[in-house]
Batch of 2 targets.
Target 1
Amino acid sequence: MSSGPVDVVVVGSGPNGLAAAVTMAKAGLSVRVFEAAGTAGGGSRSAELTLPGHLHDVCSAVHPMAFASPFFRAFGIDRRVDFVTPEVSYAQVLDGGRAALAWHDLERTAEGLGADGAAWRRLFEPLLMERDAVVDFAMSPILRGPKHPFAATAMGLRMLASARAADAGFRTEEAGALLAGVSAHSIGPVASLGARAAGLLLGMLAHAPGGWPIPVGGSQAIVDALVADLRANGGELVTETRVHSLRELPSAHAVLLDVTPRALDGIAGDLLPNGYRSVLRRFRYGNAAAKVDYVLDGPVPWANAEVARAGTVHIGGSAAEIDAGERQLARGVHPKQPYVLVSQPSGFDPSRAPAGHTVLWAYTHVPRASGRDMTDAVTARIEQYAPGFRDRIVASAAIPASAMQLYNPNYIDGDIASGAASVGQLVARPVLSGTPWRTPLGGVYLCSASTSPGPGVHGMAGWHAARTALRDVFGIATPPPLAP
Ligand SMILES: Cc1cc2nc3c(=O)[nH]c(=O)nc-3n(C[C@H](O)[C@H](O)[C@H](O)COP(=O)(O)OP(=O)(O)OC[C@H]3O[C@@H](n4cnc5c(N)ncnc54)[C@H](O)[C@@H]3O)c2cc1C
């Protein structure tokens, strides 16, 4: 391990660890990042998982927070990475060649939803008008108190109203399934408050400026931009170094850990007070995701041709069917009809595969620690809505949920959210506090997706933790500008 003293050590180079690292480096501090894997990036890496020359996103693929996250906006990610915004943010495929489409354009979406168009508009238009305030509310710990009470109330009322039923009270199967499909991102029954919070935030961003963008060259491009900025400001990145104890680290004034509460309990050990250790041990991890990546010899032959215009496709049937599958999952069984999330980047970024080929990214929800290879199940699910899909497959690669934790220790038993995203754990993540990143150990902070505001590539936990540490440890009350 590189042993010279530094101002700041960051453990883990996921989007949050790197957000913390660049914030500290821009403040003029010396920063060293230790990463267990051979490359930086955590859940935002891209790699040739199947055939040479075919670039797959290993974890995250689509970035609804890229233009909305206050951290990424301050960092100027749009000036550092090229993104493409699909004209359909997400599609919900249904039987009989039907599909519901969430166009980037809210009006066009409402038109397509027929009898439910006005209700869809009523759900999202007020949130969109207060977009920055809604994002600010969703990206801050609740105990800080909403800076924008109107936006918080609008969001809260919609969560309560839409969580009453799986179909959220929509009259058509299309609109109910469209909202259920986006709510199911959070892994769990779609009518739970946690799922609705995710669905409303992601659903709003689908219609916001920037939509659900896809980085040209894969999610790795976001990490590359963060690492380049870190290095330009004198920061160091040390890979292939897993940290097991705080005692191994070089002398530093502040340590920011992009790890789970369970890992913090191990790394800090008996340096932590018992009360806090039991809070860390009570933190719950959720059900899991199993990944399948494909190389195809052309685009997916969707029964409904318009689905090709979507960056993301949700497969799960009606709202009731999606909910039933997620409830089976909550009982610890593999759903009979699994929910599948598909991203089809090749239609928007031809650089991912050689001419004539496309890459396709998919994952499905499975019980925690499942070791099942889900290739056949996911293939069958896509084939159901895209007859002929199977014949287009040139190669595929599966990552079962149980292998996720080997790839990244933050995905305990395959929980890609690094902690169940229930309302309780979104409010107290991992503790109920206005500064939940601070630990009882002076100068030691948690900054991963296991802390507020939770999962996703937005860098916000890292940014919040870094700004708290700048104030606490270095007396810097005004965080540095991050723009290029
Ligand atoms: C399959 C999958 C699909 C996803 N899809 C999306 C998506 O499309 N859009 C989206 O916004 N989000 C998506 N996510 C979620 C997103 O990737 C994560 O929420 C995000 O990466 C969390 O960032 P993080 O910095 O907190 O942690 P991570 O990205 O998990 O990074 C943690 C890093 O810390 C390192 N580390 C951990 N412990 C140690 C240690 N002791 N010593 C040294 N290094 C350590 C790990 O190796 C890892 O590199 C997806 C995740 C997965 C797995």
Target 2
Amino acid sequence: MFPERLTQGYRSFIDGRFAAERSRYEALAQAGQRPEIMVIGCVDSRVSPEVIFDAAPGELLVVRNVANLVPAYESHGETQHGTSAALEFGVQALRVKHIVVLGHALCGGIRAFADEQEPLSPGDFIGRWMSQIAPAAESLGPRKPEDGDTYLRRLEFASVELSLKHLMTFPCVRILVERGKLALHGAYFGVSSGRLLVRDPATGRFEPVTDEGPDRLAMFRCASD
Ligand SMILES: [Zn+2]
């Protein structure tokens, strides 16, 4: 049976948001989609880019995978590249102007890699997928017992950094970035705090988005992540 939660949610959507935005949906159907921003996010159910950025239909092109990773460019081989195919579509067909790699706190994929967790199935798809971030882990040096979960946070940031590097290995991305027609961004969502950090390209540091007032920042500092 189709989940009742989805039937209820759909009823709410069709009577509410769809009714309110019907003309927008119709225009998008006729003219086609033209999102200017692509987001590469994690499958984590708490980190939905459309929710975090309060996006309307047609505004964000979103691809989600375990731990918001971008694989390095490969021109051949037999691996299936879902994320690379979405990138190709976003960059070449839709001509997005921005690509955001959206990392997040408490990422299960990052933890699975760092803790060297046992495979969940004989295929070990998560283990093989997450092995891509080995260079990010190497950049942090050995994990020390006293680091605790701080190490996981650092690895979450480092893997966003690595994905930004991998994006530049795609010739179509690199060319458009060099021509100033495409911008790459790193961001990080702290689940319980709601805090959004954005990578400063000049320093590589992740800083709160600038339009947040001091009161809101104080609230973030009180939160656990
Ligand atoms: Zn995650």
